[in-house]
Design brief:
By secondary structure, this protein is an alpha+beta fold. The chain has 16 helices and 13 strands.
């Protein structure tokens, strides 16, 4: 039975097949380990059902399996094979994993062949999406470090008692350190095991039974070693993050827009970044870092790796503008169209006319800044900050004297030793950003950014109901992200095609 005759001409399935005609899906599967036994079901047909399901908002494996039994569009795609089970569908998704990124890029390139997409303009933004983890399973890095430091102090107090025991039996003393590794306590632990075997004592437990000094020391060493190992494991999982979840180690606790308790509750989640051109999501990635500023460079490097080019105009909101990001854009030939954090404030008259802001201090004939009370603000220090990827020269200015100044409390950042730090070259970069964003092109790019990238997140969260991951770990959540973005772009292609026809 030719099911294609029954399906309407404007159905999404026709747009899907038209777009996927030029893509060889077979290459995304490895058939080398098929082995002997029953022939596997056609992976390409199942993948077609998965991708089409993302396009029409049928995303769960069970929902796709149900559609393959009852929905004529899915039956047409799987070409009459026995409908796959939800476990087989999940198996096919797991076989692909991060290959879905290459598939997403290939689908985007097929769309670019059919539509005029200006990839010189990339609108970037991020959002926090909740992880599939309990919100009360947090582990805080600082809390672990604090507990570990307390344990160091306990070990330092205990070592002299251990050494007394070791000295009586001819062992060398254990040295006291400022920090300890769990492996360091392996030696005293083995010594205690030797002492126990030599003395031939039996350990006792429970009420009314008195433990020997040897048993107490042995149990103390074992307890401290296990605790150190636990802290090392937790800090190893956290890495440079301030927190992680016990049920999804890759998730970081972040502030979410959905705050039902109105108490700024932190939830486990991921920082999802997307780049949009002409309404299509060209790139997507997820990060454990909460700050958008630090995701900007790795995101564009990933974009360049996929498309072998950098966008000429990477447009982003205020969370992305920084000295390092501007220097990075200049080094790659990209324009500075990312707002810095005070860009909006600088438009306010109150901000422009504030006489106590360092940037608004008048400059005298000698080129020295003068505070509102006509006291000189001279350069007192200059040093190179090498912590960031792009070393920057920091200039320190200090007021000649704040003593007896009636404006001291009102003056910006008033301190006993009044200082202000600025980054050399920051003013030049900021002027370029202002000129770019206030130009005719910059205004149009800012408008389009708010429409396109915010609109994409709106569709993903509201229309596609994608507000929480159902998989765990970076590999799992990225697999889920790529599928969602592929579905979004396929749906966008279909809608734009019939928008133009109508």
């Amino acid at each position: 039975m030719d099911l294609g005759i029954i399906i309407q001409e404007d159905s999404e399935v026709h747009s899907y097949l038209e777009l996927m005609k030029g893509i060889n899906l077979e290459k995304y599967f490895d058939y080398s380990n098929q082995g002997i036994g029953r022939n596997r079901k056609n992976r390409v047909q199942i993948l077609n059902a998965i991708l089409f399901g993302q396009m029409v908002n049928v995303r769960s494996t069970r929902a796709i399996a149900e559609a393959c039994r009852n929905d004529i569009r899915f039956l047409y795609l799987i070409s009459g094979i026995n409908p796959p089970s939800h476990t087989l569908i999940n198996e096919v998704i797991n076989e692909l994993n991060l290959s879905l990124e290459s598939l997403m890029v290939e689908i985007n390139e097929e769309i670019m062949k059919r539509e005029d997409i200006d990839i010189d303009k990339l609108y970037i933004d991020g959002t926090k999406i909740e992880a599939d983890a309990n919100k009360y399973t947090f582990v805080w890095t600082k809390q672990v470090q604090k507990a570990r430091d307390k344990l160091y102090h306990k070990i330092n107090k205990a070592i002299p008692k251990w050494n007394e025991l070791f000295k009586d039996r001819g062992y060398r003393e254990i040295k006291i350190r400022s920090t300890y590794q769990s492996s360091y306590l392996e030696k005293p632990k083995n010594r205690m095991i030797g002492i126990v075997d030599k003395v031939g004592i039996g350990f006792v437990y429970g009420k009314g039974k008195r433990k020997t000094d040897i048993q107490r020391v042995y149990e103390q060493i074992v307890e401290y070693q296990e605790k150190l190992a636990e802290y090392e494991e937790k800090l190893g999982i956290a890495g440079d993050r301030n927190s992680y979840s016990k049920t999804d180690h890759d998730a970081t606790f972040m502030h979410m827009k959905e705050d039902h308790m109105k108490n700024a509750q932190l939830k486990p989640g991921y920082n999802v970044q997307i780049g949009v051109s002409n309404e299509y999501i060209m790139m997507v990635d997820a990060y454990q870092n909460r700050a958008d500023q630090r995701t900007f460079e790795p995101f564009l490097e990933k974009y360049n790796l996929a498309y072998d080019r950098y966008p000429k105009y990477p447009v982003a909101d205020a969370g992305y503008g920084s000295y390092d990001n501007y220097r990075y854009c200049q080094s790659k030939g990209m324009g500075l169209y990312q707002k810095y954090n005070t860009w909006s404030k600088e438009k306010e008259k109150k901000y422009q006319k504030n006489p106590y802001r360092f940037e608004n201090f008048k400059i005298n004939e000698e080129g020295i800044r003068v505070c509102p009370n006509n006291r000189l603000y001279k350069e007192v220090d200059r040093y190179l900050n090498t912590k960031s990827k792009y070393p920057k020269t920091m200039i320190v200015y200090e007021c000649e004297s704040c003593e007896g100044c009636p404006l001291k409390k009102q003056c910006t950042k008033a301190k006993e030793n009044k200082q202000s730090k600025i980054t050399e070259g920051w003013d030049t970069l900021r002027d370029e950003v202002r000129n770019n964003l206030d130009s005719t092109l910059g205004i149009d790019l800012r408008i389009q950014r708010s429409i396109q990238v915010e609109g994409a997140f709106g569709v993903i969260k509201e229309d596609m109901r994608f507000r929480r991951f159902t998989r765990t770990g970076m590999t799992g959540i990225k697999t889920e992200l790529y599928l969602v973005v592929i579905g979004y772009n396929l749906k966008k292609y279909h809608n734009k095609k019939y928008r133009l026809i109508s």
